[in-house]
Amino acid sequence: MNRNDRSIVGLVMLAHGMVHTYELSIPIFIPIWLAEFDVIALGPLEVAVTSATLGLLVTVGYGLFGLGALPGGVLVDRLGSRRLITACLVGMAASFVLLGIAPGLVSITFAMVVWGVSASVYHPAGLALLSKGVEERGTGFAYHGIAGNLGIGLGPLLTTLMLLFLGWRTAAAILAAPALLAALYAVRASFDETAAVEAAADGGEEAGDSKADAGVDSLSEFVAESRVLFTGSFALVFLVVMMSGLYYRGVLTFMPELLDGLPGFEAVVVGSLLPGGIADVLGGLSAREVSPANYVYSGLLMIGVVGQYVGGKLTDRIPVERGIALSFGLLGVLALLFLPVANLGFAPFLVFGAVLGAALFVVQPFYQATVAEYTPAGTRGLSYGYTYLGVFGVGALGGAVAGTVLTYANPPTLFGVLAAFGFVASATGVVLSRR
């Protein structure tokens, strides 16, 4: 990578890690909220707190995370990536400060709204910056994904460790600090946002782009460019990313709660893991319980680093359509195997979880690179806006689907639904490769 590539990749790695630190810390709080709150007070109306209602609550924030990606993508093409990435980081910090002072589930929902709106602009901004500014695009996607997975894994782990010693509100407020520091770096970083597009244009590679550098200027142009996107194969790519989002959110939102009830995942008292002298020094802290499920959840997400790196490298070596077909097919099979393997005990699930963690994230560089191949550079922000509308907007319904199925049906039904998402995306990859 040249200097400009390294500067851009460094910024997006930092910001991407922050986005997913917050995103995947939220499920760690869900069992606490289930235990702490009995009802949601909406004036004279009171709603019982269940997995279904909390799934809907989380879906509000996660839904905005995706829905805001589309207007965010339009803004990226007009304002540039740096400004939106900085605003994203500041807004996420504010949301976790609000979460730290939230007295109940209504105010928690408001904090989730602030987080969702703020975080929504990151993916179109960061990925447009990578695709237009970095010449080693596949490698840039790989490192970008690795940073996201570090945030995905370390965020829940850090949250879990803080909850051993602090209340959940204090832990949430402390989590706001890293995003503020990242925002300061975003303001100071130096790079050319369109270096790769300019280099490609000099070589004649993108001479056919009708909108090489302008984005959309009006509602009519937005509609026209959207129509161009969806009358082509991008419509199939959009189906893939929707299935990816539904699977991703559906399998992760309630995973700590699901694992808690399985053999080998019972809560453990801290004092039982320590020598007697240390346990005595810790006093009341040694009587606290730790949940192995939270640590396994963090580890599963952390191993996604491998998947992101492998997926990013493979996008430069095999057709992305074939990669989509194979990787999503694997996710469908893993969903069907999840409960049978989990019921075998702790050790077998660790091996299975490592495979699932890698497979869950190997798909991301494939569909990110597919979007770049199927869209013009000038509306790349709009294209990624639609992409993350599908991944995190439509995909946010995966949390509500999971909560509803767990409340009114059972875990095997949930994993059957998740398998269907994976197989639909895999079949779509086959169609794309044949076209």
From TrEMBL:
Keyword tags: Cell membrane, Membrane, Transmembrane, Transmembrane helix, Transport
GO MF assignments: transmembrane transporter activity
Pfam families per the UniProt record, alphabetical: MFS_1
Major place of residence: membrane
Membrane topology category: Multi-pass membrane protein
Location of the protein in the cell: Cell membrane
Keyword Calcium assigned: no
Listed InterPro entries: MFS, MFS_dom, MFS_trans_sf, MFS_Transporters
Sequence ranges assigned to domain Major facilitator superfamily (MFS) profile in this UniProt record: 1-435
Ranges that cross the membrane: 12-34, 54-76, 108-130, 142-165, 171-187, 228-248, 295-311, 323-341, 347-367, 388-408, 414-432
Domain of life: Archaea
GO-annotated cellular components: plasma membrane
Protein name (Swiss-Prot/TrEMBL): MFS transporter
Organism whose genome encodes this protein: Halobaculum saliterrae
